[in-house]
Amino acid sequence: METTLILLKPDCVTKGHCGDVLQRFEKAGFRIRGAKMMKLGPEILREHYAHIAAKPFFPEVETFMQSSPVIALAVEADGVIEKVRELVGPTDSKKAAPGTIRGDFGVDVMVNIVHASDSLESAKGELARFFQPGELF
Ligand code: ADP
Q1: How much distance in Å is there from the Cα of 28 to the middle of ligand 1?
Q2: Among 34, 33, 116, 118, which Cα is nearest to 77's?
Q3: 28 lines ligand 1 (CB under 6 A)
Q4: Ligand 1 center to residue 53 CA distance, Å?
């Protein structure tokens, strides 16, 4: 069994897509192990997005990710990391196929509804970043 970290980003929260997105994960048979609303600050964002921190678009991403609280989810299933990435679609919402979460609800390459861990290793680090051990069930 794998667990992955999902963030429902500010656009998901402010546009009222949280229920739709969560329903896709529940319909796929994933088990929710943790859920919490959080306001992300510059420190956690710089850690979480270390791989893009040097990119010219990073300041814009930082502003976007702080524009409203996010909802962090920990979900479990066999092969859930890859399965969630498939349901979510590619980074650029405009290139994401209809039927994927980003294809149906996202706006562009930055405003793209959710974050989802991309490997077992990053899931481990990201779950520890957003959840205390006692917050996962
Ligand atoms: P993903 O979230 O699909 O794993 P990345 O890890 O490459 O994608 O990027 C992290 C986040 O940074 C993206 O989800 C998106 O919000 C933002 N981002 C990525 N590329 C760009 C870009 N070219 N312009 C603006 N924002 C971007």
Answers
A1: 25
A2: 33
A3: no
A4: 11
- The answer to the question of residue 97 being in a domain is yes
Structurally, the chain folds into a number of domains equal to: 1
Burial (Cβ within 10 Å: 0-12, 13-18, ≥19) of residue 88: buried
Is residue 110 domain-resident? yes
What confidence tens digit (pLDDT) does each residue in 90-115 have? 999 999 999 999 999 999 999 999 99
Residue nearest ligand 1's atom 16 by CA: 110
Residue range 124-134, pLDDT digits in tens: 999 999 999 99
Q: Which domain holds residue 61?
A: 2-130
Distance 51 CA to ligand 1 centre (A): 10
Q: Is residue 20 part of a domain?
A: yes
- State yes or no: is 115 an active-site residue: yes
